[in-house]
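Lay summary. Proteins are chains of building blocks that fold into shapes, and those shapes determine what they do. In this project we predict the shape from the chain. Here is one chain we studied, written as its sequence of building blocks.
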Amino acid sequence: MNIDLESRTITRRSFLKGAGVVGAAGLLSACGGSKSDNAGSTAASGAAAPNTTGGTPLKEYISWESANRELESWNVLYSQQLTDINVTTNMWDGLLSFDCYGKLAPAIAKSWEANDDSTVWTFHLRDDVDWVDANGGVKEHITANDFLVGLEWVLNSYKNEANNTSMPTLYLVGAEEYYEKTKEMGDAAASLSYQDMLDAGVGIEAADDYTLVFTCKDPCPYFDSVASYTSFYPASQALIDELGVDGFRGCDNTNMWFCGPYIVDEYIQGNTKSYIPNPSYYAASECSRFERFTVTMISDQAIAFQLYQNRELDEIDLNESTITTITSDPNNEYNSQLCEKRAKPSAYCMHFNYQKNNADGTPDDNWNKAIANKAFRQCFYRGLNLKAWYSRYNKINPLKCENDLYTMKGLCYNTEGVEYSTLVAKEMGFDSEQYDGETMIRLRANGGDISDLKKQAMEELSAIGVTFPVKASFYIIASSTSALDTATVLRQCFTDSFGDDFITLDIQTYVSSLTQEVRSPRLQSFVINGWSADFGDPINFLGQEILHDDNAYYAQYYSNIASVAEAPADYQADLMDTYEQYTDLVNTANAIVDDTDARYDAFAKAEAFMLENVLVSPCYYDVSWCLTHANEYSKINAMFGGCNYKAVNWETSEEAYTTVQYEQFAKAFELASQG
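And here is the predicted shape, written in a compact code that computers can read:
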């Protein structure tokens, strides 16, 4: 099909400015080995995918995102939200990236190696990387010192407000001590520089302008995966000086400097983001990029489908309603174009709020007492049948979305090649259970019958004044019909599983920011949130839920268990004891640094303890169907880190890909991955 891309661009962009409105999907957060065998490699951001179908590639691409995915920060060092990183990954590069098979690949670091015990890691940087401004003008050259500036910013509690610090403090010599020093200094820490960080003994060194050396507290054979994350990205001292500390922390697309494959051409908050190639990108000759890459916010599936049909979008994920519309008509042209996507590298869970407030700011004692009860929580894990809800994401194979564990599949493997989540399933007693397309694995033992647990919970809670049914407040974006439809199905799952006398789902709405309108005032009973790993070790997941750690993301910002620990009520005594036991199990596992198998076994026991006590309740994996002009198997596919939305080396086609082609892509990918 011969299309005038230039004129089409104008039409599509103009249309989207008027039609693009926000929609909803599951919220995703991110904080995201072996010694490198890539020392001689030169391909940045992975090798370019071959043109496997002979289709005419797209020069410009329009993707989409949903309502609650508007970014909250442009500062790549500050943000821990994957919704932010999905954007900023296109404007910034770090030391390393990934290829389409999830293997580490060079980026600003052209090669890297570790010493014999993996405590000292050396990264050799390219000498042709520049900072550019919002207009693409070169500002200054990037050297190893920029990584020192970036790390000092991350570790400085005043500058970075304790965001994104967990990995450096966990792994680098002296990093935690420096962070605590800046925390104690308060406002005075604003004047500290990277030299102060070095003088304090933090394990980072610029051996020369293009050699960066990290020293770990303990042997860490996967540190290169850690170093790929955004907390180790560079920053320009000149830009910080220009904007000031507050200005740099709150930077936006107009005043930030970039070093990645794209710069921002247009940003309309709540509507569109358009990127164009960075004219001074160091790897321009080593990867393919679009002439324009646009992401538009879509209100609901009906609008998305209409835009796709009009070629105003180049890809859409399909919900239950749209798949039904297509498959109910055997003559629908899209029947042959239904493509099942691979699971996104994220595990979604219900994160309970243990310190919920009412809308007037008073404590919601009814919910807080209920969720502190173990039997009450266990009903979520052992009794909530989510198959109908899964159909909203994957109508054809709904139970492919099932998630019974906390840590995502495929994160890491022991020395015998056993995948870590298998170890957890063994501890839980269902390692022999397999996908059957009919019944959720965790409901098979009791058939979903929680009558005894329900009776126990109601008796114990009634004795301390809880009234039934307990209302679980669940918030969705107000403007999205799709989010409402999905939440309505979830509410029915609650009714079908629990009855109307025990737990009911109370659907509430927010206008634009879940964080500001809901999470900060602590109005939610739970949030369904996904975690995308930052590096390849279970501590990245399990460490987010522990006590006594400022960097425990969920403990601090979602469950609020860290706040509960400061002054627990009498009814929270057992809950706090459980969290202390869990914290001890995680810390014990994390202290094992010389035996990978023993480390993973210990983490598996900690995770099984978490699940038995249902401190969180795992929900789903994102395995959806789509219509698309992009070969997903050509995209970066990292199990951790923030590079998966980097729009480089994508295979695309003017003609939509077919079901058969996607099945072939999946088979070829599996074979290549095994090889």
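What the prediction tells us: The longest helix spans residues 481-498.
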